[in-house]
Write a structure and sequence with these properties.
alpha/beta; binds alpha-L-arabinofuranose; 8-stranded parallel barrel; TIM Barrel; 11 helices; Immunoglobulin-like; 7-stranded antiparallel sheet
Length: 500
């Protein structure tokens, strides 16, 4: 059996996790909103038309913040279409996804839904087809008490109290030629900065996210971040990152190595932030909002067959398998390892559209990727340890890739030390050891394992429990040394508890 050594020190800390690291995303796209979170005609709907089965699963995931309403959708969106009496709301062509938007659900419904889900809202403004004034109006509608045109409009719609939305995205993927109102870095930087100044004048308590590159392969990557931050440094708090991976050719080893690329991507963006910070002679540190990340490729071919201008079709409905769950686990570990800089991250998306939760007329079920996210959100909040992973490596498209990804988190209040680990070796188990003599009194509480002999196994409404975690992985502490055995191709959560 191969061997990996983990080295930690109780004083060698990366930092505390921001709870918003476990955020997610709902876009007006496919069946995310309609049939996903909102379906008044469903037997599962509550009095506001929200699906209770979805809400239960979202609450299980403990999602602290949800980005809304897009995504590409926001770049052609008029937020006013989605407020006020439903019978007066217009149907419009959604140019981003070439479908029809009915506007029967809008920002007030979303704010209500988010409250029920126990989540904050990460609201995006349209900087594709719109600009400073419309963003200002939206903020005024959402956050001012009353006594102005927009805040009084909200009150007239039945929302006496402001929504108090604290974090805002300045557009979406504005570097992408596919984006409605795509802009050059200079064009976007000027617009984002002027919009940010106006928004912060209106509500100085908000935090703002500027668009970074749509992914690490964009030709403008690097220069885009630099130009945007040089212009917006004083007015924004975060730069965004987005990244999706896929395995269309069935190259599992390369696919699972994608976390190497993600780590490199984050380090590069950190470097650009630091570069601009030093040029500005400033003590202000720009943080990262990794507000779209996931696996996305299964639905690409099916989506080409969608009838243009149909109403909330099945779109981007990836059905996730076991190997996708492994990569999602590795991506979560990568985010945790950068918890000092990544303050917000959003698994894209939450329901039906490239999502951990799927709905049908019969109910809702958990996809494979639900589980690593659930575990990280439940046991990953705490102080992240610098976790040195001395793992054997294999050759991949990204260069050397470790077989094991791992990170440790101390949860002081719970008196827990938790390790998350993925074994990417699909053939062999892995023995992992860690010297814990600095952490006296800890015993193994549980070792949760997600594994399936078939890497292509999926969950469905008929077989919702085909891939699910079990407790009972092999972990022991003897003479202060933790020894764990990781099954081939497995996601592992090793929870250690301090005994009285
Ligand atoms: O999440 C799906 C899409 O991916 C989003 O609309 C867009 O921002 C990204 O390209």
């Amino acid at each position: 059996m191969k061997h990996t050594q983990i080295i930690i020190d109780k004083d060698y800390l990366i930092g505390d996790t921001d709870p918003r690291l476990f955020g997610s995303f709902i876009e007006h796209l496919g069946r995310a909103v309609y049939e996903g979170i909102y379906q008044p005609e469903s037997p599962f709907a509550d009095e506001q038309g929200f699906r209770k089965d979805t809400l239960d699963l979202v609450k299980e995931l403990k999602v602290p913040i949800v980005r809304y309403p897009g995504g590409n959708f926001v770049s052609g969106y008029r937020w006013e279409d989605g407020v006020g009496p439903k019978e007066l709301r217009p149907k419009r062509p959604d140019l981003a996804w070439r479908v029809t938007e009915t506007n029967q659900f809008g920002l007030n419904e979303f704010a209500d839904w988010a409250k029920k889900a126990g989540s904050d809202v990460l609201m995006a403004v349209n900087l594709g087809t719109r600009g400073i004034m419309e963003a200002k109006d939206l903020l005024e509608y959402c956050n001012l008490e009353g006594g102005t045109e927009m805040s009084d409009l909200r009150r007239s719609h039945g929302y006496e109290k402001p929504h108090g939305i604290k974090t805002w995205c300045l557009g979406n993927e504005m570097d992408g030629p596919w984006q409605i109102g795509h802009k050059s870095a200079q064009e976007y930087a000027r617009l984002a900065n002027e919009t940010a100044k106006v928004m912060k004048t209106l509500d100085p308590t908000i935090e703002l996210v500027a668009c970074g590159s749509s992914n690490s392969q964009m030709p403008t990557f690097g220069d885009w971040e630099r130009i945007v931050l040089e212009e917006c440094f004083d007015s924004v708090d975060y730069i965004s990152m987005h990244q999706y991976y896929g395995n269309p050719e069935g190259k599992t080893a390369d696919f699972l190595a994608s976390s190497v690329d993600m780590d490199r991507f984050i380090r590069s963006v950190e470097a650009v932030c630091d570069h601009v910070q030093s040029k500005k002679h400033s003590s202000k540190q720009i943080r990262i909002s990794f507000d779209e990340w996931n696996v996305w490729y299964h639905s690409n071919e099916a989506d080409k067959l969608i009838e243009p201008w149909s109403i909330h079709p099945h779109q981007l409905e990836d059905i996730y398998n076991m190997e996708d769950a492994l990569l999602v686990g590795s991506m979560l570990i990568t985010l945790l390892r950068h918890a000092d800089r990544v303050g917000i991250a959003c698994l894209a998306q939450l329901v039906n559209v490239i999502a951990p939760i799927m709905t049908t007329d019969e109910g809702a079920f958990r996809q494979t990727i639900f589980y690593p996210f659930l575990h990280a959100s439940t046991f990953g909040r705490g102080t992240v340890l610098h976790t040195l992973v001395k793992s054997p490596v294999y050759d991949s498209v990204y260069g050397d890739a470790p077989y094991v990804d791992c990170v440790g988190v101390i949860r002081e209040e719970q008196e827990e030390l938790v390790f998350f680990a993925v074994n990417k070796d699909t053939k062999e188990g892995m023995e992992v050891t860690c010297d814990l003599r600095q952490f006296s009194g800890y015993q193994v509480e549980e070792h949760i394992v997600l594994h399936d002999d078939d890497l292509l196994a999926v969950n469905t409404m008929d077989h919702p429990g085909r891939v699910q975690p079990v407790t009972g992985g092999e972990s022991v502490i003897e003479k202060g040394i933790l020894t764990a055995r990781l099954l081939p191709a497995s996601w592992n959560v090793i929870r250690l508890k301090r005994m009285p």
